[in-house]
Specification:
The protein is mainly alpha-helical. The chain is built from eight helices and three strands; from the N terminus they run H-E-E-E-H-H-H-H-H-H-H. The protein is globular, with a radius of gyration of 17 Å.
């Protein structure tokens, strides 16, 4: 919260259209500017004291269905699973940015987005395709075990492989349970 307040102080009064950009370097240091000079900078969006996924940027899930169905077909996934991950990750807010730097509908980390060939992480179609491709990779890596794949999507595949199961991390366990609940709900529709 202090960081957001500090960033708001950077924007001069009366400049509602001012844009702040950010990136996090390899050491974990955050860099902010209003005049980006490096391709790593991404727009920083502040909409009051709103958590990701509950802001005014939400998209009606029905409008995302063509992208979800296409990605599901491309990566051999159930559309209800992709929809469940989107709901759990961003609550259908394509502009969502997590405290850790994950972005967009499926909350891709910038490095993962590059690996998944996503050029514009905030573009709903690209984000859904990148997130779906990554989810398919996690399912393949963990032999189709949905719980392990979801845990890997949340906390990273190396941690899952190292611990040979879902780690005792409350956030990850709650995440897996939440996605599975949403998945069951969307399958009924």
């Amino acid at each position: 919260m202090v960081l957001v307040g500090w960033l708001l102080a950077l924007i001069p009064a009366g400049s509602e259209g001012a844009q702040v950009y950010f990136y996090r370097d390899h050491r974990g240091v955050w860099h902010f500017t209003d005049a980006p000079t490096d391709a790593r900078f991404r727009p920083f969006h502040v909409r009051g004291w709103v958590r990701a996924g509950v802001g005014s940027s939400r998209i009606d899930p029905v409008l995302l269905q063509p992208y979800i169905k296409s990605a599901a077909q491309a990566f051999n996934l159930d559309p209800a699973l992709i929809t469940a991950v989107i709901k759990a990750e961003s609550a259908f807010d394509p502009r969502a940015v997590s405290w850790a730097g994950a972005q967009g509908l499926m909350q891709l980390m910038p490095e993962t987005a590059v690996l998944m060939e996503v050029d514009n992480i905030f573009n709903p179609r690209e984000n859904i395709f990148g997130g779906s491709r990554y989810l398919r990779l996690m399912l393949d890596r963990f032999n189709g075990d949905l719980k392990l794949a979801l845990a890997a999507y949340n906390i990273g595949p190396e941690r899952i492989a190292r611990e040979q199961g879902i780690p005792d991390v409350r956030e990850t366990r709650l995440y897996v349970d939440r996605v599975l609940k949403y998945y069951r709900d969307f399958k009924k529709k």
